[in-house]
Amino acid sequence: PKSPRERGSVAGLVIRPEGSDAGERKLVERVEVVPESGVEGDRWGESPYAEPGNEVSLVNVHMLRAIAESDPERMALSGDNLHVDLDLSQENLPIGTRLLVGGAVLEVSDVEHRPCISFVERFGKVATKRVARANRIGLRGRGLLCHVRERGEISTGDAITIERPRGPVS
User: Fold this and answer.
1) In the 8-state DSSP scheme, what is residue 17?
2) What is the pLDDT of residue 22?
3) What is residue 23's DSSP assignment?
4) Taking the alpha carbons of 29, 130, 112, 49 in that order, is the dihedral positive or negative?
5) How far is 158 from 10, CA to CA, in rounded Å?
6) How does DSSP assign 69-123, residue by residue?
7) How far apart are CA 111 and CA 30, in angstroms?
8) Are strands 56-60 and 82-85 parallel, antiparallel or unpaired?
9) How many angstroms separate the CA atoms of 126 and 130, rounded?
10) 14 strand-pairing partners
11) CA nearest 116: which of 33, 54, 66?
């Protein structure tokens, strides 16, 4: 199905528990996001790849269902924090776009979300090629990464409101 362009929703939430093994995931009903820390309880801060701009990851729920056979436990293996029903394309959500989600404000960063080796191992080469191709043509098949601009709680079912940048983003 096509995802909405103007107002989306949170279909699922995942954390990678602090101190856990690389593949451990936990499906949750709500999370708290914090500027410069990401999702509370998520091991993002323990990662050598943690950097400003990749504090929270979003992935399109329809794409994820397609590659994970709609199995929520398998979908969680992507490691993305928010599974959303929203058009994540570069055209729809340029860098600097703010996403009002629950009580939080996220901002689309310039850090590209690419499939990693774990993604290939969990979903296979065909799925990886599919999302990589979508990335190349601006559809952000692997999803997108965000800064947390305002602390807040996000719950499954929350609406996502979009505030696009008015001028050039620096």
Assistant:
1) B
2) 76
3) T
4) positive
5) 5
6) TT-HHHHHTT--SEEEES---TTTS-TT-EEEETTEEEEE-S------HHHHHHH
7) 25
8) parallel
9) 6
10) 27
11) 54
Separation between Cα atoms, residue 117 and residue 98, nearest integer Å: 29
What is the b/e burial string over 131-145, where b = at least 16 CB atoms within 10 angstroms of the residue's CB? Answer: beebbeeebbbbbbb
The amino acid at 130: R
- The amino acid present at 4, given as its one-letter code, is P
pLDDT tens digits, residue range 29-78? 999 999 999 999 999 988 888 999 999 999 999 999 999 999 999 999 99
The one-letter amino acid code at 146 reads C
Q: Indicate the pTM of the whole model.
A: 0.94
* Rounded Cα gap, residues 102 and 6, in angstroms: 16
Phi, psi angle pair for 54, to nearest 5°: -125, 35
Pull the structure tokens for residue 155.
Answer: 């719950």
